[in-house]
C-alpha cells in the first residue's frame, strides 16, 4: 500500500483492500458503545509484515501506518503537498542537495522528541540492504545508497548523503538530481522513527510508536487493528473522531453486509456482487469517482517463453494484452467502476496521456493477437498452461475468470486461475518469487508523480526485492530515461521524459495494464463526511457520526 501494492482488488477491485470476512457483525459501532467517544470502524486486511513504515508497501499495513506516522510533508485530499514536520525543504540550483529544517515541538507518542536524526537514521535503516526493507528503493537517489547494497553490512551503516547539522536541521546530498524529492518525502517510507525502534525492531512492528494524528492501541492479528486519536498531534490533518479500528475481513461480501447493517462504518471498495447496485442501495452511503489506482497483472521477466528481454517473450506479452477486452471487463465484471487502461500511470497523474506510442498494445485486437502468438511459436513452441495467481480474499475472482476465458477463446491457449487464500499469503508468495506464472498486481500511488508508478515498479533498482518491481524487469534504456527525468529542470520536462519511458514499457509489457480503479466505496448510514482522496482511500480523519 501505500503504498503500495494494492492489497487487493477488492471486488471490482478497487484498490487495495484486503477484505476480510471475519469482521465481527455482532459488535456495535455506535459512539455510545464506546463511552461517548466516536470510534470509526473501517474495512482492513491483515498486513503482510509488522507495522514498520519502511517495510510496508501494501495497503493492509499502509492504512494504519499512514495514520500513525507524520512525515516531512503531508498531502491534502487532492494530492497537494504541504509542509508537515518540515519547516522548510530548500534545494540547491540543480536539485542535487536539499537543506531540511524541522518544526520544533514534534514528539513521538512515547514522549521523545522528533529530531533530524529521527529521519536520517530511519531512512538509512530502510535503505540498508541488510535490513531487507520493502521500501529501500525509494532512497536510491540519495548519495551512499549503492554502498548500503553491498554484502557484509551490519545494518546500522548510514547513508553518506545524510548529514545532521543540528537537532532540527539536516542536509540531503543526492547521487543524482531528484526534482521529485520534496514530494516523495510525503510517502510513509520516509517516516521518522524513535530510538526505541532500533532496540527491538520486531517488537516495535507489533506495537509501533509514531508521531501522526493517531497512535497505536492494539493489534489482534487477523481480527483488528485499533488506533486512537493522538492528543499531542498538531499537524495539518484535522481529526473529527476519537479513533479508527480496522476490522480485518477475508470476504468483501461480509464486509459489505456489515456496512449495510451498520456494523462497519466505512469500506474502501465494494464486492463484485454489488458494483452495479451499491450506488442505489438505500442502506449505504455510496462514493464513486475517477481514481488513481492502476490494476495490472505481472508476468515474471524470467519466465520461460515470456522473458521480457527476448523477441519471443515480448511477442507473447503483446499477444496476451491484445487478446483481452478491457471494456467488457470494466462494463460486465466491474459494473462500470473502472476505466480501461491506456498507459502505466493513471488519469489522475500529472503527465498522463492516452495516446502514447505503443498504446495500441493495450487495445482489443484478437486477430493481431493470434498473429503475434504464432510468430512467437515459430521461434519456440509453447504448449504449457499460463496461470494467473491472485488473492482470493479481495474479490478478484470474476476478473481473472474473465481474463482466462478471453485468452482461451481468443488465443486458443491453455490458461487457468490460481487463487491464493489471503492477501498476506499472496504477497509473501510474490516476495519469495515462488509464483511460476502471471500474478495480479495493483498500485495505489504514494505521491502524485509519474515517477511513483514508473521508477518504483519498473526500474532495475527496485527489482530483486529491493523495492516494488515484483516482476524483476530490467531494461537499461528505461533506467536511463528515469535518470534523465530526475535531472529535468521542470515538472513539464520530466513528464515528457516519463512518457518516453512509458513507450518502452508499452512495448515490453513487464506488467499488463488492465484498468484504472475508480475511487469508490461505501459508508454506513449515519456516518458523516465520507469522501475519498487522491489515493482512492477514505479520509478516515474526517469521518464522524
Considering the chains and any ligands shown, give keywords for the structure.
SBP_5_dom, alpha+beta, SBP_5, 4-stranded mixed sheet, 14 helices, Peptide/Ni-bd, 545 residues, 7-stranded mixed sheet, ABC transporter substrate-binding protein
Topology of this protein?
Layout (H helix, E strand, L loop, with lengths): L38 E6 L14 H10 L4 E3 L5 E3 L2 E6 L5 E6 L13 H12 L34 E5 L2 E5 L7 H4 L11 H4 L1 H6 L7 E7 L3 E6 L13 E6 L3 H10 L4 E2 L16 E15 L12 H12 L3 H8 L4 E3 L25 H14 L5 E7 L5 H15 L2 E7 L2 H9 L6 E6 L6 H9 L17 H11 L4 H18 L2 E14 L21
Parallel strand pairs: 1-10, 14-15, 14-16
Antiparallel strand pairs: 2-3, 4-5, 5-7, 6-7, 8-9, 9-10, 11-17, 12-16, 12-17, 13-17
Helix pairs in contact: 7-9, 12-13, 12-14, 13-14
Q: Can you tell me about this structure?
A:
- The protein is α+β, with helices and mostly antiparallel strands.
- 26% of the residues lie in helices and 20% in strands.
- It contains 14 helices and 17 strands.
- It has helices spanning 59-68, 116-127, 181-184, 196-199, 201-206, 252-261, 311-322, 326-333, 366-379, 397-411, 423-431, 450-458, 476-486, 491-508; strands at residues 39-44, 73-75, 81-83, 86-91, 97-102, 162-166, 169-173, 214-220, 224-229, 243-248, 266-267, 284-298, 338-340, 385-391, 414-420, 438-443, 511-524.
- The longest helix has 18 residues, at 491-508.
Amino acid at each position: 500500500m501505500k503504498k503500495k501494492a494494492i492489497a487487493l482488488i477488492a471486488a471490482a477491485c478497487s484498490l487495495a483492500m484486503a477484505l476480510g470476512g471475519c469482521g465481527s457483525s455482532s459488535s456495535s459501532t455506535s459512539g455510545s458503545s464506546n463511552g461517548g467517544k466516536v470510534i470509526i470502524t473501517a474495512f482492513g486486511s491483515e498486513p503482510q509484515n509488522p507495522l514498520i513504515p519502511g517495510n510496508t508497501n501494501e495497503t493492509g499495513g499502509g492504512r494504519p501506518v499512514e495514520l500513525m506516522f507524520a512525515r516531512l510533508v503531508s498531502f491534502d485530499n487532492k494530492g497537494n503537498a504541504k509542509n508537515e514536520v518540515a519547516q522548510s525543504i530548500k534545494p540547491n540550483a540543480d536539485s542535487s542537495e536539499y537543506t531540511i529544517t524541522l518544526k520544533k515541538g514534534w514528539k513521538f507518542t512515547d514522549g521523545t522528541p522528533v529530531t533530524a536524526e529521527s529521519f536520517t537514521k530511519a531512512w538509512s535503516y530502510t535503505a540498508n540492504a541488510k535490513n531487507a526493507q520493502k521500501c529501500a528503493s525509494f532512497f536510491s537517489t540519495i548519495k551512499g545508497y549503492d554502498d548500503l547494497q553491498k554484502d557484509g553490512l551490519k545494518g546500522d551503516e548510514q547513508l553518506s548523503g545524510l548529514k545532521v547539522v543540528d537537532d532540527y536541521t539536516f542536509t540531503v546530498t543526492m547521487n543524482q538530481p531528484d526534482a521529485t524529492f520534496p514530494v516523495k518525502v510525503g510517502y510513509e517510507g520516509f517516516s521518522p522513527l524513535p530510538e526505541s525502534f532500533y532496540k527491538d525492531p520486531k517488537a516495535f512492528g507489533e506495537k509501533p510508536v509514531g508521531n501522526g494524528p493517531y497512535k497505536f492501541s492494539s493489534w489482534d492479528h487477523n481480527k483488528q487493528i485499533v488506533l486512537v486519536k493522538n492528543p499531542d498531534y498538531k499537524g495539518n490533518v484535522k481529526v473529527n473522531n476519537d479513533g479508527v479500528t480496522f476490522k480485518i475481513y477475508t470476504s468483501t461480501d461480509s464486509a459489505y453486509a456489515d456496512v449495510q447493517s451498520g456494523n462497519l462504518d466505512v469500506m474502501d471498495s465494494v464486492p463484485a456482487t454489488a458494483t452495479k447496485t451499491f450506488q442505489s442501495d438505500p442502506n449505504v452511503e455510496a462514493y464513486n469517482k475517477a481514481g488513481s489506482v492502476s490494476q495490472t497483472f505481472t508476468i515474471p521477466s524470467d519466465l520461460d517463453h515470456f522473458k521480457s528481454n527476448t523477441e519471443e517473450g515480448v511477442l507473447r506479452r503483446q499477444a496476451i494484452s491484445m487478446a483481452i477486452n478491457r471494456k467488457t471487463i470494466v462494463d460486465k465484471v466491474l459494473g462500470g467502476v473502472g476505466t480501461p487502461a491506456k498507459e502505466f500511470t493513471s488519469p489522475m497523474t500529472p503527465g498522463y496521456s492516452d495516446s502514447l506510442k505503443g498504446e495500441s498494445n493495450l487495445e482489443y485486437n484478437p486477430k493481431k493477437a493470434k498473429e503475434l502468438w504464432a510468430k512467437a511459436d515459430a521461434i519456440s513452441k509453447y504448449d504449457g498452461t499460463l496461470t494467473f495467481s491472485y488473492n482470493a480474499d479481495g474479490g478478484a475472482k470474476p476478473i481473472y475468470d474473465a481474463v482466462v476465458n478471453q485468452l482461451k477463446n481468443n488465443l486458443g491457449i491453455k490458461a487457468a486461475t490460481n487463487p491464493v487464500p489471503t492477501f498476506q499469503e499472496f504477497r509473501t508468495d510474490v516476495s519469495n518469487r515462488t509464483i511460476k506464472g502471471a500474478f495480479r498486481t495493483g498500485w495505489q500511488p504514494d505521491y502524485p508523480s509519474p515517477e511513483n508508478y514508473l521508477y518504483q515498479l519498473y526500474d532495475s533498482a527496485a527489482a530483486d526485492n529491493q523495492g516494488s518491481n515484483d516482476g524483476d524487469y530490467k531494461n537499461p534504456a528505461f533506467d536511463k530515461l528515469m535518470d534523465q527525468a530526475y535531472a529535468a529542470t521542470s515538472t513539464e520536462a520530466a513528464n515528457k521524459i516519463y512518457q518516453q519511458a512509458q513507450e518502452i514499457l508499452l512495448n515490453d509489457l513487464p506488467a499488463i495494464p488492465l484498468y484504472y480503479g475508480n475511487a469508490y466505496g461505501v459508508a454506513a448510514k449515519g456516518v458523516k463526511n465520507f469522501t475519498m482522496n487522491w489515493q482512492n482511500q477514505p479520509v478516515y480523519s474526517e469521518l464522524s457520526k
